[in-house]
Structure formats: structure tokens, C-alpha cells
């Protein structure tokens, strides 16, 4: 496997508090890897650590061989990693289109931005129809689509997604998951996906890792995990 994103023996948290205790993980080029685990396991912290939003105490995070340790999110985005966090992931008072423009801020006056907006809106017809509508007036599902669409505006090769389907109806969640799979397949973007709904994540993931108490307790192909009951996966029961 060609690892595009690598975590090696990572200890990280917030200030002095340590949440991840020795996490090593590799995301392969163009693959979807799901990070599963119970509440408070450190899944979001893993994404925050990659994106320079947590304190990295020890270990190494690298992207295409470039060390990310100590870099700011703005530098990490420029290298090709994008993040759609779980909350506050769109600007509510901006329209759909304005959110996409803002999403491309690191590209300056790149003339390709306009065509990328059209291209990304074609991927999400549900929000294309609402391009002039303020984000705060979108449904939950539409808003999550916008968050993913916005994250694509930096043309990433790695996309970090934190519970993109949280709070969505089963139907809206399934639609979004299909879009995420489509993004991987048509754009070759590698995706690290944190998801509460294990079955749904395993549907689209190639690989999965289970994080419990800040440590990866199990890792393997998504298929390997499908037959294991969640309690056993998370709590070893
Ligand atoms: N910004 C922060 N400052 C201090 N502690 C934090 C911060 N964010 C998270 N934590 C703590 O870190 C631990 C791990 O939280 P994290 O959000 O990474 O877990 P998670 O696996 O994503 O959980 P969930 O599934 O509930 O979202 C928790 O104990 C949480 O209280």
C-alpha cells in the first residue's frame, strides 16, 4: 500500500491532556478508511491532530512524506489535505455558492475556481438548485453536502470527514454516503471517515480501524469487520 497519510506512534490531545496514546495508522492513496469507536474514543482528536488543531505531544504525522508536525491548518490545506468538521462546517449567513467561493480561499484568484464550483455543484444537484439560498436555510442533509462540497474546493488529495451523516435521516445519510463513495471513485481522493454508523461506514470503506480509549485496538479490511457485532468490536465482548 502506498500511504499518502501516515501517523506513527502519535500521542496527542489538548494542552497537557493526552487523548491519543500511541496511534499508528496509514491511509492508502485513493482509499476510504473508516475510523470507528465509541463516544470519546478520540476519533475527532485523530482528525484534529492530522489537521494541526490538537497538540501533538510525540510521534509523527506526514502527508506524502512531508511532516505535518507543528504546521498550521492553513499550511496543511495548501499541501492537499481538507477537513469537513462535524460542526460549524458552513457559513450559515452565506449562500451555497458563496460558501464554495470561500472554501477556495487558499487558491487566491485561480481562474479554475469558477469551473470547479460548477463541477462540484453538478456532483450535488440537491444543493445546485439552492445555490443562491443561505446555508442556514438548508435541510440538515443539504447542509452536510455543502460542507463536503466546500471541503472539495481546495482540490484535496486527502479529505477528512467527521461524522458527515450525524443527525441525518437514514435516507439522507445513505445519499451522502453514496456521494462520498463517488468522490473517491471519480476524483481519486483518499478519505478518512469518522462515522458513528458502523454498518453505513463499512458499506463504502475499503479499510477500517477501531479506536478505543485513544488506542487503535483493531485494523483490517472493511469486509473483515462486517460480521463482527459492534459490542465485540468496541468493547471486546
Ligand atoms: N477541544 C478540546 N479540549 C479539551 N478536551 C477535548 C477537546 N475536544 C475533545 N476533548 C476530549 O477528548 C476526548 C476525546 O474526544 P473526541 O471528540 O476525540 O472523541 P470521539 O471519539 O470523536 O467522540 P464522539 O464519538 O463522541 O464524537 C474526550 O474526553 C473529550 O472530552
UniProtKB/TrEMBL annotation:
Keywords: Amino-acid transport, ATP-binding, Nucleotide-binding, Transport. GO terms for biological process: L-amino acid transport. InterPro entries: AAA+_ATPase, ABC_transporter-like_ATP-bd, ABC_transporter-like_CS, BCAA_Transport_ATP-bd_LivF, P-loop_NTPase. CDD domains: ABC_TM1139_LivF_branched. The keyword Isomerase does not apply. Residues 5-235 form the ABC transporter domain. Signal peptide: none annotated. The keyword Metal-binding does not apply. GO terms for molecular function: ATP binding; ATP hydrolysis activity; branched-chain amino acid transmembrane transporter activity. Belongs to the ABC transporter superfamily. This is ABC transporter related.
Amino acid at each position: 500500500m502506498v500511504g499518502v497519510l501516515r501517523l506513527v506512534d502519535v500521542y496527542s490531545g489538548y494542552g497537557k491532556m493526552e487523548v491519543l496514546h500511541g496511534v499508528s495508522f496509514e491511509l492508502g492513496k485513493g482509499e476510504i478508511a473508516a475510523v470507528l469507536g465509541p463516544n470519546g474514543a478520540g476519533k475527532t482528536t485523530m482528525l484534529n491532530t492530522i489537521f494541526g488543531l490538537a497538540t501533538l505531544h510525540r510521534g509523527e504525522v506526514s502527508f506524502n512524506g512531508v511532516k505535518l508536525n507543528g504546521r498550521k491548518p492553513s499550511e496543511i490545506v495548501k499541501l492537499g489535505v481538507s477537513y469537513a468538521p462535524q460542526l460549524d462546517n458552513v457559513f450559515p449567513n452565506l449562500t451555497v455558492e458563496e460558501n464554495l467561493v470561500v472554501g477556495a480561499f487558499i487558491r487566491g484568484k485561480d481562474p479554475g475556481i469558477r469551473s470547479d464550483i460548477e463541477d462540484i455543484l453538478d456532483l450535488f444537484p440537491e444543493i445546485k438548485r439552492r445555490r443562491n439560498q443561505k446555508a442556514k436555510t438548508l435541510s440538515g442533509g443539504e447542509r452536510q453536502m455543502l460542507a463536503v462540497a466546500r471541503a472539495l474546493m481546495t482540490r484535496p488529495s486527502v479529505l477528512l470527514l467527521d461524522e458527515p451523516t450525524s443527525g441525518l435521516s437514514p435516507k439522507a445519510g445513505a445519499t451522502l454516503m453514496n456521494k462520498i463513495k463517488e468522490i473517491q471513485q471519480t476524483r481519486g481522493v483518499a478519505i478518512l471517515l469518522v462515522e458513528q454508523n458502523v454498518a453505513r461506514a463499512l458499506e463504502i470503506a475499503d479499510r477500517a480501524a477501531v479506536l478505543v480509549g485513544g488506542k487503535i485496538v483493531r485494523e483490517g479490511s472493511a469486509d473483515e469487520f462486517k460480521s463482527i457485532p459492534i459490542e465485540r468490536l468496541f468493547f471486546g465482548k
